[in-house]
Specification:
single chain, alpha+beta, six-stranded antiparallel β-sheet, five-stranded antiparallel β-sheet, elongated
Length: about 270
């Protein structure tokens, strides 16, 4: 019972950008499942490989070092050991990590670990559990490395992590081209709420935009002034809730969550 509760806790702590992609499933036929719970990850990995489970590479080699899902905790350490199956690692709590494998029948298996990996101190991450997962339909809105805003979005994701705002997924934003001539924007789903951001090409471009709020039949209407001008007809934001705008250098940040806006302003004021 104690082990089961720990496994559930770890699954909750591992970045949901990995966990949210899949749903549990129960295949009729699968490779053998060796006893790996409570083993160190290297030992568990060897048993899985011997049983026919193969690691699934979850990151691009040229992006892994800056990928926010594995930049904390044991993430980069495991990646640099060649554990390309590492999906995500938490830099806080029990240092949870998730890894993904597949077998000859096409089944996917997620393995979770907890504990810091500190070989010099003879401390090792250990397996807390595993489960089958089925891929959900791929979300075409997810931001890809080929998208214009990808590099800036990854930089912003690292900033969010520094503010303890856990990113679940990053998508293309409908704010692309909201301002004339600016096509770099991103939509972040975090555990605290949604954040959208427009990336201006000029170092202080976002700070040149002024926002005006007015109320109309209980709604919040926002208009903008400054260069570059918004792109009609999408030159206003009409919302049932207040919207908070945070400007910093080239970042024009939009959120409907007041606490997120406060955290961002504080983080930007005290980098």
């Amino acid at each position: 019972m104690k082990q089961t509760l720990l496994a559930v806790l770890v699954c909750g702590l591992v970045s949901s950008s990995a966990l949210a992609k899949d749903k549990p499933c129960r295949p009729d036929k699968h490779a053998r499942l060796p006893a790996i719970t409570e083993l160190t990850y290297p030992k568990a990995r060897k048993r899985l490989l011997s049983a026919g489970w193969q690691p699934i590479q979850t990151k691009s080699f040229n992006e892994a070092d800056t990928d926010p899902d594995i930049s904390g905790g044991n993430g980069l350490l495991f990646w640099r050991r060649g554990y390309v199956e590492v999906e995500s690692c938490s830099g806080t709590g029990v240092a949870a990590c998730a890894f993904l494998f597949k077998d000859a029948y096409g089944n996917h298996l997620r393995v979770t670990t907890a504990g810091e990996e500190l070989p010099k101190e003879k401390a090792y991450a250990r397996v807390t559990g595993f489960r089958f997962v089925c891929e959900s339909k791929k979300d075409s809105s997810l931001l890809r490395p080929s998208d214009a805003a990808y590099a800036e979005a990854m930089e912003f994701a690292r900033f969010l992590k520094g503010q303890r705002l856990r990113v679940e997924s990053v998508h293309r934003s409908k704010l692309e081209s909201f301002f004339r001539g600016i096509n770099k924007a991103a939509f972040f789903k975090t555990r605290s709420g949604v954040i959208e951001i427009i990336f201006f090409p000029d170092a202080n471009g976002a700070e040149q935009v002024q926002t005006t709020e007015r109320r109309d039949n209980g709604r919040y209407i926002y208009t903008f002034q400054g260069q570059p001008h918004p792109n009609p007809p999408g030159d206003t934001i009409d919302s049932v809730r207040p919207i908070y705008f945070v400007r910093h250098g080239s970042w024009f940040i939009v959120t409907s969550e007041q606490e997120i806006a406060k955290a961002l302003k504080s983080g930007l004021a005290h980098p």
